């Protein structure tokens, strides 16, 4: 783990050598293209969409040091900073399903609101429970650097 | 010189605007994408401005404002053109909206970066992460099932609510497979993100979710998808990394867990 931290630090030190933005975009495009070839291989009953495969591929490439942070982080961080804006068309997409809302709208929105809160709170506290088990039952280290 | 009467003016302008927006029969194939891009940007920027002068009032979150205002503007335009909102949305907004929507692909992939930045946490807690997401999802499914029943959704509605923790592209086909309506599921996935984006800070505080940074990250990624991950990054690097891994793992867990859950509850 120490070696990994060290690797991350040296990579940050080389920040001035960040790859040109077109190369960074090229890496993203290549990963997306390969992912779009892999995605249809999954059966219809077990769908795994292109961006999910792409996320895994980029993570594996980073973890195996084939791709360095400086090759992708400038474009990647930029894309992440845009995520709320990129979601606007999805939000406006609801204009096409206004008739669904007319039928059962209020009930659906209430269930979705509750479901969102349930997912957040239940997953967070389940995790806290498992970490508590790790610490108090299995007596394993739970410290992380901030 | 041709002089036009008031109504002829209207007709000419109407035709011009219709052509430009791609809503007339002639312009429909052209599908002008610029209107959709322009409208998305304008409503989002207006939301940012409103959020700033509203001193961060949660309902003024730019994504929420952009969504509501965008739909409202499409509704007004549709009225003016004498069509319904869904038709106008498809012909005028969608070509441009799809271009912006496409960029969610590289943006989703980009979450591998915050994930890798905290690879130390991933390596140390991978077992807890996977177990928490599986157990957390199963508990949530029971709660969502009974809440849906209590509020009075029919079986189609309940089935549509089950896969919403997954990313839209996974949730929709699963909803269809277990007898739900995939359009309703897509709406759920979108609203998850909008709700987490608008209420996330408040929910995290109110439910003291952030007392465990790993749990906060996994919860935000599960409930709010990639938008939740962006929220989690604001809390810290561990939270951001955990939310990114949650987006991937929970989608696969939904793939595996939701169909048998649905048949166990008698939905299919």
From TrEMBL, chain B:
The organism's superkingdom is given as: Bacteria
- Give the bilayer topology: Multi-pass membrane protein
Q: Which UniProt keywords apply?
A: Membrane, Transmembrane, Transmembrane helix
Localization of this protein: Membrane
Q: Which InterPro entries match?
A: CidB/LrgB
Locate the coiled-coil region(s) and give their ranges: none
Q: Name one Pfam family in it.
A: LrgB
| UniProt key word Transmembrane | yes
Name the residues that span the membrane: 25-46, 58-81, 93-113, 125-148, 168-199, 241-262
Q: What is this protein called?
A: Antiholin-like protein LrgB
Q: Which organism is it from?
A: Levilactobacillus angrenensis
């Amino acid at each position: 783990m120490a070696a990994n931290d060290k690797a991350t630090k040296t990579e940050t030190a080389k920040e001035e050598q960040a790859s040109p933005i077109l190369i960074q975009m090229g890496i993203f495009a290549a990963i997306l293209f390969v992912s779009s070839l892999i995605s249809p291989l999954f059966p219809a009953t077990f769908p795994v969409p292109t961006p999910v495969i792409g996320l895994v591929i980029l993570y594996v490439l980073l973890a195996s040091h084939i791709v360095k942070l400086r090759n992708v982080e400038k474009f990647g961080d930029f894309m992440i900073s845009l995520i709320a804006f990129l979601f606007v068309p999805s939000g406006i997409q609801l204009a096409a399903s206004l008739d669904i809302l007319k039928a059962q709208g209020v009930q659906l929105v209430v269930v979705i609101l509750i479901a969102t809160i349930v997912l957040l709170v239940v997953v967070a506290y389940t995790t806290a429970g498992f970490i508590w088990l790790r610490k108090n039952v299995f007596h394993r280290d739970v410290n992380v650097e901030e | 010189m041709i002089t036009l009467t008031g109504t002829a003016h209207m007709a000419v302008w109407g035709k011009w605007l219709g052509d430009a927006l791609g809503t007339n029969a002639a312009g429909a194939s052209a599908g002008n994408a610029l209107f959709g891009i322009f409208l998305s940007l304008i409503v989002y920027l207006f939301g940012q401005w409103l959020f700033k002068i509203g001193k961060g009032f949660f309902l003024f979150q730019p994504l929420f404002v952009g969504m509501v205002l965008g739909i409202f503007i499409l509704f007004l335009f549709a009225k003016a053109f004498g069509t319904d909102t869904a038709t106008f949305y498809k012909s005028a907004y969608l070509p441009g909206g799809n271009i912006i929507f496409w960029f969610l692909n590289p943006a989703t992939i980009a979450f591998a970066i915050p994930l890798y930045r905290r690879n130390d946490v991933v390596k140390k807690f991978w077992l807890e992460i996977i177990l928490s997401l599986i157990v957390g999802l199963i508990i949530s499914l029971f709660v969502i099932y009974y809440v849906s029943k209590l509020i009075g959704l029919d079986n189609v509605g309940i089935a549509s609510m089950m896969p919403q923790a997954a990313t839209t592209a996974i949730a929709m086909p699963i909803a269809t497979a277990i007898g739900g309506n995939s359009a309703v599921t897509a709406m759920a996935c979108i609203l998850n993100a909008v709700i987490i984006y608008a209420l996330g800070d408040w929910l995290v505080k109110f439910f003291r979710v952030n007392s465990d940074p790993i749990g906060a990250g996994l919860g935000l990624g599960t409930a709010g998808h990639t938008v939740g991950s962006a929220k989690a990054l604001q809390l810290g690097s561990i939270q951001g990394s955990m939310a990114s891994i949650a987006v991937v793992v929970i989608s696969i867990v939904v793939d595996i867990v939701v169909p048998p859950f649905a048949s166990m509850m008698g939905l299919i």
